[in-house]
């Protein structure tokens, strides 16, 4: 029998923390104001108001997730299935259990502290709710899990409509949920705010999973590549790779320099290139995350 250890429990603790963060987003910023930014949580929010709040949102989320799990997890690994079921059930329970407390927090304490809270700012709620939702969901996804929802539905539809990518199917499904909310609540404004929240949430997920360690990648073409490379290595302390190239017009051999630097190092790099060769051709591109020497250490994920 496998012994219990903190390392084995750590993913489940992080999933629980992610679900708690998502719960704050749903119960404080989204559900009370009829903001339904896609997904099963958005669909559950719509149905919750259609049935006059008789069925709790968490219960609805669990009901909608059951067929998705049954149909979409057969081809997934055992670890993913267990963690995702854990996340989906935990989120549903947390949403319903904490709903009375968050309602009291918003109505009794925040409104007393700031009377302007009595008139909700839907744009602000959508933005803040989207950021918090994306942060919480990012924590769950990073642990190789999910809380159910449209990602499983998209995987099912992918088998039926292989011409569409998963990203396109996710966008379609979330768009349909927002459209449904717009029709049911008879408010284009709510639909637009929900769209903003969905966009912000997706960007937050990307930033959390892919990292915040942005950098710049440079490709430098110059007749004085040796001098530029030497200055970059000495003055900026960055590695430089020389790639063999050829000018297609002149047919002359060229050395193309490839270098990755931090954003704050860019002014120094530009100054070096300008001093060495004002006629150099420099191509810059954004790099979201860099792993390796001089940047973030590269670790092997053994989870």
UniProtKB/TrEMBL annotation:
Q: Give start and end of each DUF2179 domain.
A: 238-292
The signal peptide stretch is none
Q: Which superkingdom does the taxonomy of this entry point to?
A: Bacteria
Q: Which UniProt keywords apply?
A: Cell membrane, Membrane, Transmembrane, Transmembrane helix
Is Transferase among this UniProt entry's keywords? no
**Where does the record place it?**
Cell membrane
User: What name has this protein been given in UniProt?
Assistant: Uncharacterized membrane-anchored protein YitT, contains DUF161 and DUF2179 domains
Originating species: Thermoclostridium caenicola
The root-end lineage is:
Bacteria, Bacillati, Bacillota, Clostridia, Eubacteriales
């Amino acid at each position: 029998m496998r012994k219990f250890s903190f390392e084995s429990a750590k993913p489940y603790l992080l999933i629980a923390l992610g679900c708690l963060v998502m719960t704050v987003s749903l119960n404080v910023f989204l559900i009370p104001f009829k903001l339904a930014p896609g997904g099963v949580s958005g669909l559950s929010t719509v149905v919750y108001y259609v049935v006059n709040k008789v069925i709790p949102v968490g219960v609805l989320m669990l009901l909608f997730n059951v067929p998705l799990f049954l149909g979409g997890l057969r081809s997934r690994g055992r670890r993913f299935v267990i963690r995702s079921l854990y996340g989906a059930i935990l989120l549903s329970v947390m949403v319903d259990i904490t709903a009375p407390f968050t309602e009291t927090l918003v109505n009794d304490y925040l409104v007393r502290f700031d009377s302007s809270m009595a008139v909700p700012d839907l744009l602000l709620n959508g933005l803040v709710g989207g950021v918090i939702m994306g942060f919480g969901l990012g924590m769950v996804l990073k642990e190789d899990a999910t809380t159910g929802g449209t990602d499983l539905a998209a995987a099912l539809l992918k088998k039926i409509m292989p011409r569409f990518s998963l990203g396109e199917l996710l966008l379609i499904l979330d768009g349909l949920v927002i459209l449904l909310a717009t029709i049911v609540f008879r408010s284009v404004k709510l639909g637009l705010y929900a769209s903003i929240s969905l966009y912000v949430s997706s960007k937050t997920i990307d930033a959390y999973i892919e990292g915040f360690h942005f950098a710049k990648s440079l490709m430098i073409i110059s007749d004085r590549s040796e001098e530029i490379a030497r200055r970059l290595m000495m003055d900026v302390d960055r590695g430089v790779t020389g790639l063999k190239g050829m000018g297609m017009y002149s047919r002359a051999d060229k050395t193309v320099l490839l270098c990755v630097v931090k954003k704050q190092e860019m002014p120094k790099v530009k100054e070096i290139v300008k001093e060495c060769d004002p006629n150099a051709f420099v191509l810059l591109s954004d790099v979201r995350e860099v792993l390796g020497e001089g940047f973030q250490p590269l670790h092997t994920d053994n989870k």
